[in-house]
């Protein structure tokens, strides 16, 4: 079953593989020196961030209907999942697979650009946090969340426009 509610064949299009997103990076990597590894990793992260921002994710809700989150290292982390199977793995890891999990489907960009700033404390997003190395974190830093709530931006820079 695809996100649009039917199978992929009935949608009339084929979903683009994430491998295509890395094709240009692989060519660029062949032309880089070993010291350019950090630049390559930043580009790879930018691709993943862009993909996250464009896709809807599942955000589980607590008993009060608020997005499920946990605090770690002075940062509140919203839990988000790429699909119901990833949410089920999280529920099993918590030993709570038998209970009903309510969730909202939210566009990744809305989560980063609207929900995170509304909280009033540093917030990031932990995507597929039960999946080990396949999970991803989007910390509250410049380029991921709005500058006004990024922890690595000086408040005076944001107010004067110098943090852009």
Present the secondary structure layout:
Blueprint (H helix, E strand, L loop, with lengths): L7 H4 L6 H13 L6 H18 L1 E5 L8 E4 L2 E6 L3 H10 L9 E5 H12 L3 E5 L8 E3 L16 H6 L4
Parallel strand pairs: 3-5
Antiparallel strand pairs: 1-4, 2-3, 5-6
Structure in words:
The chain is α+β, with helices and mostly antiparallel strands and 164 residues long. It is 38% helix and 17% strand. The chain is built from six helices and six strands. It has a four-stranded mixed beta sheet with strand order 2-3-5-6, covered by helices on one side. Helix 2 packs antiparallel against helix 3. It is globular, with a radius of gyration of 18 Å. It starts with 7 loop residues before the first helix and ends with a helix.
The level of helicity is 25-40%
How many separate helices? 6
| Mean pLDDT reading | 81
Instruction: Output the radius of gyration.
Output: 18 Å
- The residue ranges in which pLDDT falls below 50 over 5 or more consecutive positions are 1-27
The biggest sheet, with number of strands, parallel, antiparallel or mixed sense and barrel status, is:
4 strands, mixed
**How many beta-strand elements?**
6
Structural class: alpha+beta
Order of helices and strands: HHHEEEHEHEEH
Beta percentage is 15-25%
What is the distance, rounded to the nearest whole angstrom, between the alpha carbons of the first and last residues? 41 Å
Shape: globular
Q: In order across it, which strands form the biggest sheet?
A: 2-3-5-6
């Amino acid at each position: 079953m695809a996100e649009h509610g039917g199978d992929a064949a009935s949608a009339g299009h084929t979903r683009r593989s994430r491998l295509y997103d890395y094709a240009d990076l692989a060519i660029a990597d062949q032309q880089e020196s070993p010291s350019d590894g950090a630049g390559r990793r930043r580009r790879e992260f930018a691709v993943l961030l862009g993909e996250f921002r464009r896709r809807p994710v599942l955000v589980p809700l607590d008993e009060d209907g608020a997005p499920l989150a946990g605090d770690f290292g002075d940062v509140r982390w919203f839990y988000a999942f790429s699909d119901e199977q990833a949410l089920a793995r999280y529920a099993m890891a918590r030993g709570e697979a038998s209970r009903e999990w309510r969730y909202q489907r939210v566009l990744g960009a809305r989560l980063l650009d609207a929900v995170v700033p509304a909280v009033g404390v540093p917030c990031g997003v932990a995507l597929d946090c039960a999946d080990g190395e396949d999970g991803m974190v989007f910390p509250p830093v410049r380029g991921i969340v709005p500058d006004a709530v990024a922890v690595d931006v000086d408040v005076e820079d944001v107010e004067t426009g110098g943090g852009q």
